[in-house]
Fold this protein.
Amino acid sequence: MNNPTPLLRPGYWCECWTKSPATGETPVLVASIDVATAADAIRWIRIALRTITPALDRAASHDAWTWLTTGQLDATQLLQAGKPCTYTAHHATTTIEWTARPVTFLALVHGAASRPACADGFRPPPVDLGPSDG
């Protein structure tokens, strides 16, 4: 029997944003990922936060480790209850914010699906590297 891929599937959308004098007033999206479970969403945030914690100032590092040891449990519960969660780290003039929220993903094309015929005919234009010395 053929098991079609469901068109809708629950999951979580995670983002990491940063804002600093270098980025101006507008936050910049640094990374994003879609995951299947609340635990995966929190794991993604935890890995990134643990990676940068040694570079944070003392207060920000303490706050990060507090969230990593106990706060992440509350964040997981929020996600499992269908609510978004956020963790924000402040270091000097830089703010880094991770968000995770429950979403419903719409499957547009299955990864194993064949490409349309026009995809094989596409050829990008050649890159002009300027005059050649040869």
About this structure: Strands lie at 8-19, 28-35, 85-91, 94-106. The mean pLDDT is 85.
